[in-house]
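Can anyone check this?
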Amino acid sequence: MKNTIVLVFSLLAILSCSDPNVRSAQALAGRVVPGSADKFIFDCAPADSDYFRLSQSGDKVRIEGNNALSMAVGLNYYLKYYCNVDYGWDRSCGTPVLPEHLPPVPEPVRAGAKVDKRFFLNYCTFGYTMPWWKWEDWERCIDWMALNGVNLPLAITGQESIWYKLWTEMGLSDEEVRSYFTGPAHLPWHRMQNIDHWGGPLPKSWLDSQLKLQQKIVGRERSLNMSPVLPAFAGHVPEGLVRLHPEAPIDTLGKWGGYPDEYRCLFLDPLSDLYAQIQKRFLALQKRYYGSSHIYGLDIFNEVDSPSWDPEYLAHVSGRVYETLAAADPQAVWLQMGWMFYYDRNKWTPESVEAYLGAVPADRQLILDYFCEKEEVWRRTESFYGVPYIWCYLGNFGGNTFLAGPFSRTAERIDGTFREGGANFSGIGSTLEGFDCNPIMYEYVLEQAWDLPECDWIARYADRRLGGENAQQREAWKLLRDSVYVWNSGSFLGSAANMRPYIGKPSTHTYPRLRYDNAALRRALGLMLEADGMGKAYEFDIANLCRQWLGNLCTKTFDRWTAAYSAKDAAAMRREAATMLELISDMDSLTATQSCFLAGKWIADARDWGADEAEADYFERNARNIITTWSDAGMTLNDYAGREWNGLLGTYSLPRWKSFFEASLQAVLSGDVEGWYEGWLEGVKAFEKDWGEGLRGSFSSRPSPLSTALVYELYLKWSPSDEA
């Protein structure tokens, strides 16, 4: 009898290991907690909806779920709420080490998903964060998405590789196609029909490598029960198509971002037969290389004007676009950004939105309500007139490094959507433009998709950022929630440290909009220092808070300098200028301790994609442009991706401020304050362009060690300035 029982259990183990869901969950555990993966048992039990169940099995923890993704969420729940472990979204966060004896699960815990769709990423993320990622970076991010329950990741890497094949097969030359594309970091805006050509031609080596990378990405995502959202044809065509099809109805789209006419995009009328032919060919070619989840991201009018705002025209266009999708893939679901309904809200009237959406079967659409912490579009469109939609937290513009996020408002709005959002409320997600310095918000939002046991969420978050319970740590995070995380992010956010200096009206769009008392941030930092923690998450938090606090002090200092300049008080100008330059220098040293704050790493990662030195230089220029001037095309996004990064602060921000202070002081001392600023501005624009063209600067691509003592030293050094 005993032998029979052993045999049964052995057979069950073999069968379990043959389940691809179990194998995927086990492999994920091996990557996430490599030293403790064998202490977990995974079971797959099919169900009508996503769920996980934790229980104790001898000295091991059993995680049951209906698929690999649900088991991943169960693993993450255990790590967070039993082990006080926070698994971050990039490799710099490190690999958690669990205790030799895992904390037990005294009573089984079962949790189900409250919504069946959980979306993550934004077209812009692929330019502001991911353009230089290797497979190791993607692997970490995909694991993080799985742990946080994401099952609808945007997957647009490598689409140019497919377009290259299609356009050249249609008769365009290699040069015509590659020069149609932008540089790598600017591809999101090419994909969204905003700009062509800038930063091109795109190297063929890039196209080949991105195809292989995308195959790995979608393969791993599908193995974890995700449905990658792939692109479809939105009407954007290269100029060479006009040569091949002079009869085709191809028009120029409106200007975008201040770019001159030479960079404007061409748009093929969706009502034409050629549109349907290209749609079918592209989706077939894409499926051959990347497979299909039957969910396609396709946005026709993102931040560009429709040829007509007549509701009947809009309905005709959307209906025709869907017909081309359905003809190419009868199972197609059309996913669109609801951003256009917010961004161009004066043009997208309720009547227009209803006509546009109503021309397509509701169950073949999915809308991302893109910026819900700011405005919930579902509330003014009768829940998108019955079309399924996903409530999304945006949270970041440009990858800027500004502490922001309305924690309590976000919680209230998600709760309100569950109560009032209608039966077509289908999911929760995040549409962040760049990975940023506020991971708390994204963890919180994605967790709201699950029906988890109630807890003091912010206290438990504090515990896992430290690695254990501590009164000062909990008080710090509650203070941050109530005093700092009170307002949504916005475009061009930054402190005075990384904005272009100005007199009177800013000559750049980056300017501080501080909506909290900086003393509250200082108190939170002081409490964290008292907690005296250790580990990657704690070190990042104290460095991150200190960086923002010092940046806010720069803003205060510049305000005092501005008053001194208005009074023509040269002594006060010198004093405040010296203070500000020292603050920026200290910020540069502090950010050198965090891998995610290194301009040197950003540039080194870009150069690594070069097949030779010339290509490495090309990629570096593109990497430098996107985080500074954005481009040199006379457009309006200078400093949009404002980042307080080591290397960028020291070699870009600091020289701008130093030359500004010197020029202004000279003007005051000479008594001639007319015209100096305009002259300086022309000079600084030339400096900015030269920096973007500069190559192989002295940037460190590896972080220096961080000690609590360094942050504490800065805290003591600058606290009197904050108290003044």
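Reply from J.R.: I decoded it. The first helix runs from residue 2 to 18.
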